[in-house]
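W.,

You were right to be curious about this one. When I first looked at the sequence I had no strong expectations either way, so I just let the prediction run and decided to look at it fresh. Below is the sequence, 221 residues in total, followed by the output.
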Amino acid sequence: MPYPIDVKEEAILLRKRGYSIKEVAAKLSIAQSTSSLWLSSIILSSKAQERLSQRKIIGQYKSIFIRKKAREENRVILERTASEMLSTIPFSKMLAKLCCSLIWWCEGNKNLTSVKFTSSDPSLISNFLYLLRVGFKVDESKLRALVHIHEYHNNETQKQFWSKITDIPLNQFHRSYLKPNTGKRFKENYPGCLALVYYDASVAKELEAIYNVFSKSRGVR
């Protein structure tokens, strides 16, 4: 479709002002292929190039924002779905034992003389202990904790942090283990690592048995 000469002239003017080929096409309601044909050979001034660069940066920010918003909306939908699903599953002592055994199998020590579990994730530590306490008759006096810290940590601060997370009194914490550190790497907000021990071999063996039977029932060897 032929366009009036004044449309082409306005397109050239806009291009020289630093409008992109796509922007010109949209502004003048012409085909982008036509805009490209008319404007690809136009030499841009430094001012026009600067405008294009700024528009590109703004476009990138907009694109990042849109993707971030989409991810957040998707997360909300997934969590709502998960909440609805979990509300249909009756929570019981047996379910707590199963979940505890699965988590323990992933992160725990399998020597079976005691229940050992190590992680730097406060949420994982808290959830494991919750399931252990619900699923089994836990003797709180048999729980021990060992904090692994770096030189940049404050020992007492980290022990108090983990004591609050686990609800294990400080007098049941071992002397903290100082992990070697070159000083070149500093993990901001890193709480250190916590090693939990529950001195009850019977619970460790039951956790293993639950996991083994569950695995076999799913056909996993």
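Here's what jumped out at me. The longest strand covers residues 143-149. And, maybe more interesting for your project: The radius of gyration is 31 Å.

Coffee later to discuss?

I.
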